[in-house]
């Protein structure tokens, strides 16, 4: 049975131990899907999985051997892949940004998305029952912010991978889409958002006037992986309170 036919699906969420990933994992579990959290922090992944009634595996998305090992532990074909693992790793002007920061962000955000998609999609093709990939991108792929060029470049690349995956995987009944949030209140942004001036500066860019919570992001992720979206592929949808309008 195809995942778009209402089967109880197996959903893999990378970077699912915290933030958007954990919220996405919870939303799929609440919808009745079986969920596996994959995270480089195995202990945090186990804790998050226990909270929401999911399973967990330790996975370093930057390393193909780690990805393959984690998928072997899962032992079943993934029906829905959510590529959420991502880092900022630092910031600064391009002329001052340390190469190790750039390399780290490229390794996790771009190489990681590619490496996991390659492995999971191959399994979907072999199983012959279709599937869904949802990549967590960022509106930064389309709207630059000084000091975040390294991060935003990787998200633009993720958008390109999403479109290519949609084209190449369509003959196998596999859809690929993306969700591009604006700023979201997560542990990754907690430091910035705790500064009233910095938060006000971000909010001033958003027509709806507030920073998103993870609950603003999860409904679209679940929808894009659902049968209701069965004719949607190759799109990246923003959830930004209108920030790209400014």
Automatic annotation (TrEMBL):
InterPro entries assigned to the protein according to its UniProt record, in alphabetical order: KR_dom (IPR057326), NAD(P)-bd_dom_sf (IPR036291), SDR_fam (IPR002347)
Signal sequence segment: none
Cited SUPFAM superfamilies: NAD(P)-binding Rossmann-fold domains
Superkingdom per UniProt: Bacteria
Keyword flag NADP: no
Gene3D superfamilies, alphabetized: NAD(P)-binding Rossmann-like Domain
Protein name per its UniProtKB record: NAD(P)-dependent dehydrogenase (Short-subunit alcohol dehydrogenase family)
Keywords noted in UniProt: NAD, Oxidoreductase
A molecular-function term among this protein's GO annotations: oxidoreductase activity
Assigned protein family: Belongs to the short-chain dehydrogenases/reductases (SDR) family.
Pfam families referenced in this protein's UniProt entry, alphabetically: adh_short_C2 (PF13561)
Domain Ketoreductase: 9-182
